[in-house]
User: What shape does this take?
Amino acid sequence: MDLFKTKSRVISAYDFRDIDLSTIIPPFEADSEQLESDIQLLRKQNCRRENVDTVKRDDLVTLSCSSSIKKFNKEKITLRTGKGLFNKELEEKLIGLRLYESAAVQVDGETVEVKILSITRNVLPELTDENVKCWGIDNVSTVEELKVYLTSVQKSAYIDQVSEGMAGEVQRLANEKSTFELDDREIENTKAESKKFLWSMLKTNGIDPDNSTDEEIQMATGMTLSQHKDFMEGMFIESFKSDLISYELIKKNNVVFTNTDYENALLEQMKFMETDNEEETRKTFTFDIFIKQKVSDYYFNMVESYIKDYLRKN
Amino acid sequence: MSISIANDKNYKELISEGFVIVDFYSTTCVPCKMFSRILEELTVDYPFINIVKVNITDYPRIGIDNQIEAVPTVLFINDGEEKEKVVGLMDEDEVLEKISQYYYG
Assistant: This one.
């Protein structure tokens, strides 16, 4: 039984694996600044907190203060000196005070009585093999291993981001080299769907496309309405073509979506929507919608995982 | 103090006392990852600030209850009361400004 009912069909599908990914996807390059920043963060996270007896800039200080100004009447407040989040002037005047010392400082022309209750200083660990080993990162016991590990984390993030972002582009290129017999009515329906989607997107962003001028839309979005329409129609038609290829692949690979799959997906949908109204969910999440999603995901996931493999190897 | 991970059961308790920054995020959102990094850095310098992270994919109910329509969204809460909601990525200075305003204000 044909689950994905279309009159349009693929005449010849270009194999996306024949696209030279090196021409469209830049290779991964480690970001040395990011690496330095990651190492710095790890050092900060693993710093030693030392109790000291004299306040310096950047110390974590707990104090009590009293004054006629409400803000400076606190039994206990903690701040990092010199950051100015509480009061720049007061924080500057704490520098040099000793533990348990009381002082009257002038802030905004008012006297504030302060007493230092604790002073803690962060002492950054040196970047040594011995220290790195104590940071509890799996299979990392030297500085060199740490750099390799952090670079691999960068690479994984790059692969995830690029493969998801480029899968659609690879599909589009494969569509360009494939041939289709497209049914006029189905293409018109696809365009109508794209318009519906565009209208709803613009309305979500506070723009009513039916009652706005082209100038207003361009001012708000950087594109005219007809540019938006062309872009969205193009995207929907490409997606429709990709779905046609996807369905061919599904048939070729004997992939079957059963009613049980639908029932499970329905339960997931109900869980996501946090509803126990099965009847209502069936109306919005129909079997046809389920199949469309599955068809669309099948090819996309295949391309995405192919790009991931390519990036891991290169 | 540190970063706490919220779920349906502990969320209310986590935000009930003191000053709390709540970070609504999803695992696939790139700006959320950038913001998460900013919070990690802040935790080191300001260990006395409570941060609560809510994964709205895992806990959509908390997102719905707080009218979260996009991620990242950040709530600044004092003793359970929402002081401000910021939609979109904030930089470190913007978060520090909010700490200054609501924690020390």
Residues 246 and 298 of chain A are 6 Å apart (CA to CA). The first strand of chain A starts at residue 9 and ends at 12.
